[in-house]
Amino acid sequence: MTFDELGLSAELLRAVAEEGYSEPTPVQIQAIPPILAGQDVMAGAQTGTGKTAAFTLPMLQRFKQHANTSVSPARHPVRALIIAPTRELAAQVFESVRTYGKHIPLRAACVYGGVNIDPQMAELRAGVEILVATPGRLLDHVHQRTVNLGQVEILVLDEADRMLDMGFMPDIKRIIALLPAKRQNLMFSATFPDDIKRLADQILKAPVRIQVAKKNTVTELVSHSAFKVDTRNKRELLERLMRERDLRQVLCFTSTKISANRLARELTRDGFACAALHSDKTQQERMQALADFKDGKVQVLVATDIAARGLDIEDLPLVINYELPPNPEDYIHRLGRTGRAGQAGEAISLVSRDEQEALSSIEKLLKAPIPVREAAEPQRGASSDHRRSSPRSGSTPARAEPASISADPTPPRPESMLAAPRAPQRPREQQDAPAALMSKPGSQPVQPARSKRQIAALFLPPVAEKQDN
Ligand code: AMP
């Protein structure tokens, strides 16, 4: 199947070719024809499937005939309203509208909160055909009478389940009440909880139903695994993962803003270019952090779940769950940041003892176990022979060398070494090198010199065993 066969116009085919897309994705193949035909669509599609183009391309095609260069606002009524739950997603959808619509002179604007409303007001007053908005700021504009939604022909609810999670349903209903009754409705959602189904029943008319990724599944292109590690050793493990694997761009998730700030601070102190992204940051800070991350100026972006949806970073190879999300569905959304648009991706979770329940909930939701390896705390007082045996131990005698860390859940290599946490009783410089190991549950410890008791003290029990200690 080609884009041409989907019936798109020459301007859109050109824009798509300029983006380097050779063929449409499954959601595009299924959604573009009914949208072009004016039908309502309810699509179960996660970000990363190409869903933005799936609604933007046919929308641009349908409005192409209205493109004009008149300066009169009346000639540029809002014809399409795209509502997104977060500022980041709204900004990205807007970017897509501009990208795909660059050869069609329709006007588009994006309005979200956290930034000065005045420039948005001026833009809306001048008239725009396609408006991308977050719900709260859109209602602000409605109250200020800077926007008239009385001529909307297409409504898109993007990431509808997220809107529900974020408490936007009352705002959405208020907005829908302002729209003409006769319109085309497109709803995109990663999941379909009951409230979303009810909303769909209320607003969609005989929708074409599309499901491109099964509910609650992680895209097959993402390999996911976990390390069991003490909370206090997580950062060290993370840093070693980055050094060992020479990771240049790491999206790292925490479950709270406080831990995001703390981790970003500690990583910065340890010499990593790092930024935090969460809802306490100003819009300017959030956009800057994202831009710096995309440009490679920031190596580690530490984000809370607000960033888990809608972030579109091309070729992001790896997501790290520094802390598991309290809501298991957010695990899926976090993983959706990698393995996008046909690229292989990887997700690694660092799981502490008190997160085992969260891990079990995620496994239950996925209906599959997550391969778990154990991240070993180094044996205190390990022999210096071991340190010398490390090819990278160099001549610095006291400092533990980075460990070899493989994300491939295969049996450990004998030389594998892992996290070297600080020994509280001695300064780090005086610690012996770690005699760490990395193993799959059930595999033999690499350091036979350790007693079972020592090992039991150092590691969490394998998740699969569900022990209660
Ligand atoms: P989305 O699911 O809309 O967030 O899109 C995810 C990513 O897929 C974006 O980076 C798009 O640029 C990319 N994309 C969309 N359509 C295609 C396509 N047909 N071929 C390759 N990449 C695509």
Ranges where pLDDT stays below 50 over 5 or more residues in a row are 378-469
Q: Cα distance, first to last residue?
A: 55 Å
Quaternary status of these chains?
single chain
Overall mean pLDDT: 77
CATH topology of the largest domain: Rossmann fold
Beta-strand content estimate = 5-15%
What name goes with the CATH superfamily of the largest domain?
A: P-loop containing nucleotide triphosphate hydrolases
For the record, the CATH class of the largest domain is: Alpha Beta
Number of discrete helical segments:
16
The strands making up the biggest β-sheet line up spatially as: 10-11-9-12-13-8-14-15
Helix fraction, binned, reads 25-40%
CATH-defined architecture of the largest domain: 3-Layer(aba) Sandwich
Main β sheet profile:
8 strands, mixed
Q: What class, by secondary structure content?
A: alpha/beta
Shape: globular
Number of beta-strand segments: 15
Task: Explain what you see.
This protein is of the alpha/beta class. It folds into two domains: 3-211, Rossmann fold; 222-378, P-loop containing nucleotide triphosphate hydrolases (Rossmann fold). The chain has helices at residues 10-18, 26-36, 51-63, 87-100, 117-126, 135-144, 160-165, 169-177, 194-203, 234-244, 257-269, 283-295, 328-335, 356-366, 384-389, 452-458; strands spanning 41-44, 80-83, 108-111, 130-133, 154-157, 184-189, 208-211, 222-228, 250-253, 274-277, 300-303, 318-321, 345-351, 372-375, 438-439. Strand 10 (274-277), helix 12 and strand 11 (300-303) form a beta-alpha-beta unit. Helix 2 (26-36) runs parallel beside helix 3 and helix 3 (51-63) crosses helix 4. The longest helix has 14 residues, at 87-100. The termini are far apart. Mean pLDDT is 77; it is low at 378-469. The chain binds adenosine monophosphate. Adenosine monophosphate is lined by residues 21, 24-25, 28, 47-53, 312, 314, 340-341.
